[in-house]
Amino acid sequence: MFEARLLKSGQLKKILEAIKELLKEATFDCSDSGIQLQAMDDAHVSLVSMCLKSTGFDKFRCDRNLSMGINLESMVKIMKCCSNDDIMTIKAQDNADTLTIMFETKNQEKMSDYEMKLMNLDQEHLGIPETNYSCIIKMPSSEFARICRDLSQFGDSLVIACTKEGVKFSTSGDIGSANVKLSQTSTFDKEEEGVTIEMTQAVCLTFACRYLNLFCKATPLSTQVILSMSGDVPLVVEYQIEELGCIRYYLAPKIEE
Amino acid sequence: TPIQNELAEFFALI
Fold first, then answer.
1. Chain segment A167-203, per-residue pLDDT in tens
2. Is B11 in Cβ contact with A126 (below 8 Å)?
3. What is the distance in angstroms between the Cα of B14 and the nearest Cα belonging to chain A?
């Protein structure tokens, strides 16, 4: 038996918004420690890794490990049927081929339930090695989304260059070129408003704007984003979900021919 | 123009 109760269904709505354009379907692996998901996009260029801790749920019960293949488009349809502050419960029997999703309003005057068919999906897991990244940039998630959106107007590729002075985002295309430089914030009122850089070695890598913009769909989940980079390895774009867990996106760099 | 790599170039399939 698997059962998880979340006090704000809006959190799961935002999570689905953050992954539904990269993944059509995904396997949710449930265990007593929580729910995990790891899946690559169709082109095998990026990977979504999500972890929701059991302690982040109001109630969480998972008697046996369970892998649920979920069509994300179907789940988005169901999540459209609730309000952000509805309480939701997801439930499945062991070896079940359906998942039950229930919503209740806070005053419990409206209760609804939906049953969704589960799928058998081929799982292709990647072993992601522990990496000591050369540059770890923490910045406001809204600023990162703004930069990706603005610069993708000019070119398909974004160069991210990190030095101890700051981080520079650059692109170029038919109409010209664009650069945005961010320096480390010297003073800030709230930690999430600042830009901080931990660096052991300068790094400069090129990434596809299209994917970066898709990762930015996670912006509503967190005020901060963490970019981790090392030479010639995939970029990690991480959004912490308050009290619940995190979503990490990995993106393979583009390399000069 | 730089070419796009796949993730499997960096991480092993398990």
1. 999 999 999 999 999 999 877 777 778 999 999 999 9
2. yes
3. 5
Concatenated DSSP letters of A114-141 = EEEE-B------EE------SEEEEEEH
Query: In the Cβ-directed half-sphere of A28, how many Cα atoms lie within 13 Å?
Result: 24
Are the Cβ atoms of A252 and B12 closer than 8 angstroms?
A: no
What does the alpha-carbon distance between residue A75 and residue A55 come to, in Å, rounded to a whole number?
23
Q: Phi and psi (nearest 5°) for A9?
A: -65, -20
Mean pLDDT for chain A? 95
pLDDT tens digit sequence for A41-63: 999 999 999 999 999 999 999 99
Asked whether A16 and A35 are in contact (CB, 8 A), the reply is no
* C-alpha pair distances (Å), A256 with each of A11, A207, A226, A231: 39, 11, 26, 13
Please give the pLDDT value at position A125: 86
Nearest residue on chain A to B6, alpha-carbon basis = A45
What is the ipTM for the molecules in this complex? 0.95
